[in-house]
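Weekly sync, protein design subgroup
Attendees: M.S., D.O., the rotation student, P.L. (late)

Item 1: inverse folding check
M.S. brought a backbone from last month's batch and wanted to see whether the design step gives back something sensible before we order anything. D.O. pointed out we never logged the input encoding, so this time it goes straight into the notes. Structure tokens as presented (142 positions):
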């Protein structure tokens, strides 16, 4: 069964949206394999967001992600990687479709694209890599 890494970002935690995000995942039929609240440090996030190193939003993104606790989740289900990306909506909350997490809950973020409530792995390979970073005890082959 496929797994994905979901992060509820500091804006989602601060705004008490953890329950809403988790219930949308469950309502879609996915199961919650692991959940933890944590303060991710810079080194962990730099590894997680390695593909974005050097981009103009990299520093603001890392700064935002270290600004408060996050909730890391492993969700499982049929085609959950693609399915959760659909539930999350497009990266920019302003244009994310109503009905999506970002479209419904992050619509007031305006210019702050980094504050888009959730992260979801973009492929099965990314999911495996990211799960190993946040949940080494759940890494494949252990
Ligand atoms: P996603 O989170 O939808 O996979 P991404 O991997 O391209 O998007 O970028 C990672 C995060 O970086 C994203 O959730 C928010 C931030 N970000 C992306 N593009 C941005 C931009 N053009 N301006 C500001 N922040 C951006
Ligand atoms: Mg991404």
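Designed sequence read out in the meeting:
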């Amino acid at each position: 069964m496929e797994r994905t890494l979901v992060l509820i970002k500091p804006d989602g935690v601060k705004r008490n949206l953890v329950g809403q995000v988790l219930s949308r995942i469950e309502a879609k039929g996915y199961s919650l394999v692991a959940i933890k609240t944590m303060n991710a440090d810079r080194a962990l996030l730099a590894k997680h967001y390695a593909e974005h190193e050097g981009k103009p939003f990299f520093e603001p993104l890392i700064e935002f992600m270290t600004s408060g606790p996050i909730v890391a989740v492993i969700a499982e289900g049929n085609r959950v990687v693609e399915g959760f990306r659909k539930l999350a909506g497009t990266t920019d909350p302003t244009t994310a479709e109503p009905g999506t997490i970002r479209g419904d809950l992050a619509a007031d973020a305006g210019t702050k694209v980094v504050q888009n409530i959730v992260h979801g792995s973009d492929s099965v390979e990314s999911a495996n890599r990211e799960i190993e970073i946040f949940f080494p005890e759940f890494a494949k082959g252990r």
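Discussion: The mean pLDDT is 95. The pocket of 2'-deoxyadenosine-5'-diphosphate (ligand 1) is lined by residues 52, 57, 61, 91, 113-114, 116, 119, 122 (CB under 6 Å).
Action: P.L. to compare against the previous round before Friday.
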